[in-house]
Design a protein that fits this description.
The protein has helices at 40-43, 77-88, 100-110, 117-125, 130-135, 159-167, 173-191; strands at 15-18, 31-35, 51-58, 64-66, 75-76, 153-157. The chain is α+β, with helices and mostly antiparallel strands. The chain has a domain at 21-151. Strands 1-6-2-3-4-5 form a 6-stranded antiparallel sheet, with helices on one face. A hairpin with an 8-residue loop joins β4 (64-66) and β5. It is globular.
């Protein structure tokens, strides 16, 4: 998942986290996280399709996204979501590789110490239709439906900061980067 931890990944200081209301606000170059079902990892603890980090490569008409595992021309959001749904609906992946005691402990923690066994049993056979998949949280909240579809987490390149770095000599880049991101660093220190 896209991280907003600027201490872990300093390059994130060159991006702004953008809240969008519908997909028409996505711009070419935006990094987006497209999520699967919230409980994906309960069904597939070692699965690889809990979501997809993708970059918008074409924002004309219907945005197209590029990511590892997608075709070179990219895919639209609906095709990516359908792929995530197909992966979710597969038989459980990884449960057999995790010790039953550890699996019960993890699910109990997720469920606030409720008995995990009924959920584990239910997850084995749970599948969703496309319509159900579109409606589930956190993909779309009841209050803010984004056209009835998923909500995207979007990181947009801050072109002013990037252009200032590009215009700097190789000997100035570090100092320029620190100056440009100082307010971001101060925010991280104040939050921590």
């Amino acid at each position: 998942m896209l991280s907003d931890d600027a201490q872990t990944n300093p390059m994130l200081r060159l991006f702004d986290c953008v809240e969008i209301r519908n997909e028409s606000e996505v711009r070419e170059g935006d990094f987006c996280y497209i999520s699967s079902a919230e409980e994906y990892l309960l069904k597939h603890p070692l699965g690889h399709a809990s979501g997809l980090n993708a970059m918008c490569v074409d924002d004309k008409n219907e945005p197209r996204y590029l990511a590892l595992g997608l075709p070179p021309q990219g895919e639209n959001r609906v095709d990516i979501e359908r792929g995530l749904l197909d992966e979710y609906n597969q038989p459980p992946e990884g449960q057999e590789m995790v010790s039953p005691h550890l699996w019960e402990w993890v699910t109990a923690k997720i469920l606030n110490n409720a008995d995990p066994q009924p959920l584990i049993d239910e997850m084995r056979d749970r599948t969703y239709t496309w319509e159900q998949f579109q409606e589930m949280a956190p993909r779309a909240s009841q209050e803010d439906r984004m056209e009835g579809k998923l909500s995207l987490m979007v990181l947009r390149p801050n072109l002013e900061k990037i252009q200032a770095l590009v215009a700097s000599s190789i000997y100035q880049v570090r100092d320029v980067f620190v100056r440009l991101t100082k307010s971001d660093l101060d925010d991280v220190k104040n939050d921590g």
